[in-house]
């Protein structure tokens, strides 16, 4: 601890102070972000690795603030979680995404699925399923087009996870396990819970360029044997793609195909791939 005049003791380094300031400023700016229309959603294609068609998209949140510029969700989502704002923002995301899917359908862009990330805080909110149901009713989107992405952490941490997952299944939405393989959880839940999809974490796909094949092969064959859809995240190179195709991984996502883009670009990409 440094003594900096008077009786004020300062226990943090200047670096830590700067980080505190930024967090504090983000928290302040986030308070008005939704009302000020600072959030937008971008969409990253999910590609069927057998026929190279776009079968779906993952919705990803973006925040651009006049003071802070563009901030990564890695930075701001934890703050929304801490303040509880993630519940309100999460509802807005679900509503926007259902609405967007409906609009694509009206304009001839027929995707099988839209994937939405759900924070554990949102997932354990008592009204989560009820709110989702209302959004589905209001937007008149068929529930089967929606897939919610949760992590193994959510499965481990949340008490009523089994009940919520069964409620979601009854509602007709799908569930995928995001960042699969990074969560230190036992695999027994895979047989017990109603889950549709496993998304292999990008870190394992990165390792394919070295000698990470064994883990990826194991996840793909286990996933397929248990009747899950298996998606590889973060594909960046043709080598990674070829390998995943050889292993008959169902779907892929990554910069190799496309970065996350806006709704109009998804419609264009859909048309382009359709005509191939
Ligand atoms: P995630 O759900 O694992 O999302 C995948 C992240 O990997 C996205 O980053 C995406 O842009 C990035 N990515 C996709 N393909 C590639 C690739 O080939 N190479 C590289 N280097 N990166 C790739 P993004 O959009 O920055 O999101 C980061 C994380 O923030 C997400 O990880 C998710 O945990 C969280 N997040 C984003 N949007 C939302 C949201 O709407 N709600 C919630 N609760 N969390 C969100
Ligand atoms: Ca995700
Ligand atoms: Ca992921
Ligand atoms: Ca991740």
Automatic annotation (TrEMBL):
<feature type="domain" description="EAL">
    <location>
        <begin position="23"/>
        <end position="274"/>
    </location>
</feature>
<protein>
    <submittedName>
        <fullName>EAL domain-containing protein</fullName>
    </submittedName>
</protein>
């Amino acid at each position: 601890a440094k003594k900096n005049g008077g009786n004020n003791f300062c226990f943090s380094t200047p670096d830590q102070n700067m980080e505190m300031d930024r967090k504090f400023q983000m928290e302040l700016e986030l308070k008005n972000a939704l009302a000020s229309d600072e959030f937008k959603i971008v969409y990253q294609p999910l590609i069927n690795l057998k026929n190279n068609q776009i079968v779906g998209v993952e919705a990803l949140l973006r925040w651009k603030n006049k003071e802070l510029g563009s901030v990564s969700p890695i930075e701001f989502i934890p703050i929304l979680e801490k303040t509880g704002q993630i519940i309100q923002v999460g509802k807005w995301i679900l509503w926007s995404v259902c609405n967007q899917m409906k609009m694509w359908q009206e304009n001839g862009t027929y995707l099988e699925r839209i994937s939405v990330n759900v924070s554990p805080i949102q997932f354990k909110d008592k009204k989560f399923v009820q709110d989702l149901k209302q959004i589905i009713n209001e937007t008149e989107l068929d529930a089967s087009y929606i897939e919610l992405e949760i992590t193994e952490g959510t499965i481990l941490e949340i008490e009523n996870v089994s009940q919520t997952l069964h409620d979601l299944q009854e509602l007709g939405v799908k569930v995928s396990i995001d960042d699969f393989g990074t969560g230190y959880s036992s695999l027994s839940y895979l047989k017990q819970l109603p889950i549709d999809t496993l998304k292999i974490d990008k870190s394992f796909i990165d390792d394919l360029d070295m000698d990470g094949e064994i883990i990826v092969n194991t996840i793909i064959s286990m996933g397929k044997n248990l009747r899950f859809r298996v998606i590889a995240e973060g594909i960046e190179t043709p080598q990674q793609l070829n390998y995943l195709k050889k292993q008959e991984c169902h779907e892929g996502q990554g910069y190799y195909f496309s970065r996350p883009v806006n709704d109009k670009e998804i419609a264009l990409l859909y048309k382009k791939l359709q005509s191939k």
